[in-house]
Design a protein that fits this description.
Blueprint lengths: L4 E5 L14 H13 L9 E3 L4 E8 L2 E8 L6 H13 L13 E11 L3 E5 L7 H10 L5 E8 L9 H4 L6 H19 L3
Parallel strand pairs: 1-4, 1-5, 5-7
Antiparallel strand pairs: 2-3, 3-4, 6-7
Helix pairs in contact: 1-5, 2-3
Length: 192
């Protein structure tokens, strides 16, 4: 049986975070699903308590995609990643690198300028609490990272990073981020 491809988008639950920079992963996941889904079939998000996340599923080509927005808050995202891999792909934590390539984590990245992204396997930011939680819970870093640039400070660093990432993006910033979705959707389709 073919493993499901799990898209885990990092972010924080709650209306106050919906358009924050830290929720860039959630926003991008929505845009990607919109591109890949049949527009006549509405996406239905279901709260899966066993994963502690909102989950929807779609078919892309011959692969089933499970899309997840953890409800654990950013710093505990790894709990949802581990539960999802175990539930959907029968992942064995004793063999951490098995089947983890079927995990794609979408997240904000302050090391990249707004409007840039990197899709890398086994290579993510060193200082990101959500990513650190995923690595720690899985016992490996061997999964796909979709690093979404959110830095729009133009060299001015008078706002601490932990404050900056929780601020709301303006319409222009959201538009710049959304413009990445076409190119990213095409690039990710090669993984499917």
């Amino acid at each position: 049986m073919q493993q499901k491809l799990i898209f885990l988008a990092l972010g924080n639950p709650g209306n106050e975070y919906i358009k924050s920079r830290h929720n860039a992963g959630w926003l991008m996941l929505d845009w990607l699903l919109e591109k890949w889904s049949d527009p006549t079939i509405p996406l239905v998000w279901k709260n899966e308590r066993k994963i502690n996340g909102l989950v929807t599923k779609i078919q892309v080509g011959n692969r089933e995609i499970v899309a997840i927005k953890p409800q654990t808050f950013m710093n505990r995202s790894g709990e949802a990643a581990k539960a999802a891999l175990q539930w959907y792909n029968n992942w064995d934590p004793e063999k951490p690198d098995d089947n983890v390539p079927n995990l794609i984590v979408l997240h904000d990245d302050l090391d990249l300028e707004l409007g840039k992204y990197k899709l890398k396997f086994g290579s993510g930011p060193k200082d990101h609490n959500g990513i650190n939680s995923v690595r720690q819970n899985l016992g490996t870093d061997q999964f796909w990272y979709v690093r979404l640039g959110i830095d729009n400070r133009q060299g001015i660093r008078n706002i601490p990073s932990e404050v900056y990432v929780l601020q709301q993006m303006n319409a222009e910033e959201i538009n710049q981020l959304q413009q990445l979705s076409d190119q990213l959707a095409t690039e990710i389709e090669y993984l499917v």
